[in-house]
Hints:
Helices cover 31% and strands 14% of the residues. It is of the alpha/beta class. It folds into 2 domains: 6-106 and 302-347, 3-Layer(aba) Sandwich (Rossmann fold); 110-293, 3-Layer(aba) Sandwich (Rossmann fold), CATH 3.40.50. The strands form 2 sheets. A 7-stranded parallel beta sheet has the order 8-7-6-9-10-11-12, sandwiched between helices. A 5-stranded parallel beta sheet has the order 2-1-3-4-5. Helix 1 (29-32) links the parallel strand 1 (6-10) and strand 2. Helix 4 crosses helix 6 and helix 4 runs antiparallel to helix 11. The longest helix is centred in the middle third of the chain and has 20 residues, at 108-127. The two termini are 17 Å apart.
Amino acid sequence: MSNSKYRVGVSPRIRRADGSPVFPAYDLGPLAEAADIELDLLPREKILTRETLDEFDAVILFLEQVREQSFAGGDPVRLTHIARFGVGYDTIDVPACSANDVVLTITPDGVRRPMGQAIMALLLAMVGNLLPKDRIARGGAQAWPESGDFHGRGLVGLTLGTVGCGNIGTEMFRLAKPFDMRFIAHDPYVDAAEKGELGIEMVDLESVFRRSDILTFNCWLSDETCGIGSRERLALMKPDAFLINTSRGPVVDQPALLEVLQERRIAGAALDVFDPEPPGPDDPILALDNVVLTPHALGHTDQMHALFGEINCTAIQTVLSGQVPANVVNNDVLESAGLQAKLARLGAA
């Protein structure tokens, strides 16, 4: 294909060599059909190399990492745009992207409802004792009398809390509204008055641990949030409280959580994320009977993947036209002369 085309590298974890999507609803058709775009697979690299970044104008990444070392080499990198398949960007060195005139975009509209739905699925599974009841139902007549030992817990009047009340946390509260729960949240970066209009009480960090009957984590993984679910804060939780983590494993001190669960100092936990991830086969958290576990995939639905495809395609096409895309993470790069020059060249093409 012509070297004048806009080269887009796609993660082999989301697109196969024959062009078919790993996730059926994830459609890159608008890019594949564009006359001025060449789609190709990225190499299977854990950390993308400078050589790879110089082969493409844009990349769509899933689990691949971009670190400061990815840009080593001195000359300006060819790459203009990183589009994430998802919203987490702990695998991307954002300051290094900005320093090298690369814009990073994510897909917040794609995760809002699917992740809110995932949290509610875990919540209902925990309070309803779904897993032991499933086991009892499969155990035959001799097991059925055990069901009396696993009554569920009603949600009316309970306090649902979150550490982080942005896109996903707010959607969780919207979905939980019919259950007549109380809502509390800790997030120093949101407008308390705006959240108050949704019936969400903003509280300090210790209070969200202390007061929540069901505590969820809906924050980015960063230096600030790593370990925010610390041993000391977990000790503040009610003995009949539940914990749900669907954000990133290191947000919660997993060894401390393991102790709390083993000693039954809280009622239980539901985890879609782990530290390390995936957990090893001998990880003691896998042996607990008061946890619900899913493999960092509960939010992955056909609708999520379809939205990811739409958002990624739109972002790629917007940058190709020389314009600033939506959902930019590193807004500081928009003022850089290097990125402006790249966009100007694209817009004039």
